[in-house]
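I had to read the description of the data format several times before I understood it. For illustration, here is how one protein appears when written out as sequence plus structure tokens:
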Amino acid sequence: MKKRTFLKTSGIVIAGSTFRSMIPRFQSDVGKNWAGNLIYSARKLHQPKSVEEVQEIVSKATNIRTLGTRHSFSAIADCTSEMISSRGLDHIYEIDRQRRRVTVGAGIRYGELSQYLQRYDFALHNLASLPHISVAGAVATATHGSGDQNGNLASIVKGLEFVKADGSIAKLYPGNEDFPGAVVGLGALGVVTRMVLEIQPTFDVRQDILLDLPIESAKENFHDIFASGYSVSFFTDWSGPSINQVWIKRRSEGAADLEELFGARPATRKMHPIASVSAENCTEQMGQNGPWHERLPHFKLDFTPSNGDELQSEFFVPRENAPEALMALQAMGDKLTPLLYISEVRSIAGDDFWMSTAYGGDRIAFHFTWKPNLEGVLAILPELEATLSEFGVRPHWGKIFNMKADKIASAYPKIDDFKSLVVKYDPEGKFRNDFLTQKVFGG
């Protein structure tokens, strides 16, 4: 078994390959995050089953953060005091067929919600690569999915309920002046307990994979390629003159076979984003039609596509800057490739939520799935972020990044309004942690 060492920093323990082990001041009972790169520092984990339990726990706590499905690679959920799990709040309360709304508990996972909606001939507009993540956690961090016309997962929120610092309940809806700042709330306003989501009639999707898209063709035809499907992804390791794979997910009606795509050729077998890895647990491909929830994610619900041996970062740039950003990253290939398993490039439609990575306009996301070499990743991040800075970059809140609060603030026009909103709902800082202090408030 591979030996793992740890570095204690800022209230977390981060897995690394070259750091000497350091013993924490106390043993946390909360455990690790999804990938195993982070050991939470909280002394106690609450696991309520009802909103009333959440209210009681929050009202008595002095410092507390919410924990979802543990998928964040950053310390956004961590704190050194208490944590409250949303996993027990996994109810589906009702479907409003006429208004096309579903009311759900914060802790339900998208895979389970999707199966429920499909039984009633409804669908969500979008899903992330993994169906394993919780609704509230994904929304709070602006986790996204893909598609030129598809907003991120927060974009369909039509109602938000959360427990405030004093244990009382706040309910916000579109039209309320606080709603745009509260939806992508980074866990800073309170413990989210319920959400109302917009739904639509179910639909079928087919998924096709094309190989070896020439990088110059990718740049010149960038926008046409991303417009060629309901959801489109590039997968590349930046090592050669081509994008390794293009995954195109299209609504099944009227979708024909793809003979080629700007120089890319159709795959002749089912693919994993990393070509050398078995595709057994990837969602069905080769043009086979299937329901939306079995094609929009890259991986099947009954499979967790990680053994912990990875780190992740992700950066967003305005759509119009993406072709040049693509080429700037390609020029860094000799430095990126040795640290990478794979990169993914996706599009996300813009929204109006203040702290969303897609606030104010359409974005292209550049995702990096790193090998578990923390020292190497931390060393490359400043140069990577500097390369992308001229393109108006924003980091994913739940991934590993180096950017400081002043740089982040320059990318978010409404950040001062968000800070004021946090103070309004949490004046004593009950939900504050080191991550928010360092990355948002700049303390």
About this structure: The mean pLDDT is 90.
